[in-house]
């Protein structure tokens, strides 16, 4: 396939993926946002609203940057890049702080006794975002690496949305399958257009799946030392 057609297809693909991720996020959280955010019985910590704003901002930013590439406005895309770097850099710390705050909130207000598995999953999701995001910044001058790493990082943030899908459609235990399906669309695109899989997927995707498997295993088995660690994080 001619290189020009491949490049044109990339613009449409990543823009389409950004919209698909937005649809997943909106659909997933639409099942809980009314009763847990807009009109909760018990007022949520203010940090949660900051979390929602920043994470939603990342999705919007991803759409905007993908649209700029589709329009071949590389200059503006690069100018906005450092804003995205700052936005992305805020996500891991904010995500971990929100996870801890909400776990404490659930224990104190709803007397939830088992928050360890959720906390471990949320910590892992931040790792799954941070590593490809940091590598994308490092390889920002290598578009073939950069765009795939940003895609993986953005897909990693959708696990919470998939976890809120109706259980008859996607049980929460299998939320990571939704994340993997999104990334596999990128793999499929490489196979169809390039006749090979890019190294970002070759090394990144199996590593992500391994981490997801460990998280699910930890959440379904009694790992006492993990429970002790998370309890220490939450309550000292």
Largest sheet: none
Relative helix content: over 70%
Terminus-to-terminus distance: 59 Å
Using only C-alpha atoms, the radius of gyration works out to: 18 Å
Low-confidence stretches: 1-6
The helix count comes to 11
Provide the β-strand percentage band. under 5%
The geometry reads as globular
List how many beta strands DSSP finds.
0
Give me a quick take on this structure:
By secondary structure, the chain is mainly alpha-helical. The chain is 80% helix and 0% strand.
Descriptive overview:
This protein is mainly alpha-helical. It has one domain. 80% of the residues lie in helices and 0% in strands. The protein has 11 helices and no strands. It has helices at residues 3-29, 33-38, 46-70, 74-79, 81-110, 116-138, 143-156, 159-162, 175-194, 199-220, 224-235. Helix 3 runs antiparallel to helix 5, helix 6 packs antiparallel against helix 10 (199-220) and helix 6 (116-138) packs across helix 11. 28% of the residues are buried. Residues 1-6 have low confidence and may be disordered.
SSE layout and pairings?
Layout: H1 3-29, H2 33-38, H3 46-70, H4 74-79, H5 81-110, H6 116-138, H7 143-156, H8 159-162, H9 175-194, H10 199-220, H11 224-235
Helix pairs in contact: 1-3, 1-7, 1-9, 3-5, 5-6, 6-7, 6-10, 6-11, 7-9, 7-10, 9-10
